[in-house]
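Weekend entry, working from home. Most of the wet-lab plans are on hold until the incubator is repaired, so I used the time to fold the two sequences that have been sitting in the queue since the last round of cloning. Logging both here for the record. First:
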Amino acid sequence: MMRVSRTAPEDLRCLVLNADYQPLSYYPLSTWPWQEAIKAVFLERVDVVSEYETAIRSPSFAMRAPSVVALRDFISQDRPPAFTRFNVFLRDGFQCQYCGSKQLDMLTFDHVVPRSRGGRTTWENIVAACAPCNLKKGGRTPEQARMPVRKPAMRPSVHQLQGQGRRFPPKYLHESWLDYLYWDVELEP
């Protein structure tokens, strides 16, 4: 369950937006520690959009901790996403593509066409699979194992991964972040 708080988090995390005021990433949500946010302010890389009530002080300086910053230079999101285990799991909704299990501690990835049969480690040949299904399928194709793949493996765009990431909201959000995010939430009393 997601919490939306009116009080600043203990670590004063700061939401980072692109120059178009969209989050750089939804999953994981693009945040920085307060130290990184203040450094970026001093280096004039970001504009402060919102602040916490908490002040950060040094012997010669004080400022309120940023809660939301926006990059001054736009970072293009059109680059292809990196092929990583996490991104494969995100593309597949953290769900086994054979049986539909959502047991995260059992999740692995599987070569649809086994490597022993020339299958490569690519977006188009890897799916998320639970360990029992991966073991059951073994070195066979899904057709040979009579284990159809729920949805075909494909290379996602960054926008598709971000859309998928919106399905998994973080456990904590600060109310100052809500105008920039796309989740239906309720504020804590």
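Second, folded right after the first finished:
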Amino acid sequence: MKLKIPPLVVTFIFALFMYLLATYMPVGYFDFFGRNYLMYLLFFLALLIGVVTLFQFFGSKTSIDPLVPSKASKLVTGGLYQYSRNPMYLALLLLLLTWGLYLGNAFNTLLAAGFVYYMNTYQIIPEEEALTNIFGKEYQKYCVMVRRWF
């Protein structure tokens, strides 16, 4: 796989861009009733999804290294992975959406969409190709049954 930037670093880069956008863009501020509640809910969901999926990988005794998917020794399809093929990345997206709500700039949703595009193009598609090479038809069947994000 040609990817050189770990997904956590990509998330921090997008979070930095979100901060810069919210700080230096003179328009786009928003507030609404329940914004803080939604922010806390998304943060809680992100943490819950992230922790549960890490435990699923550790329990399956397979690699969680996103830069070398060829290290995967077992296909994890149960638990949260029966609803999303990429719940760890979904958790990162939820963290970015939480950050965007905290910053209160509507244009940050565009950066969150950019994160999804970047992850699909440079992380998920190469991972899917590697996992297809490792697990073959089992993984292809899984891809048909389960959505990429949610």
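Plan for Monday: verify the second prediction. The chain has one domain: 7-23+33-62+76-145.
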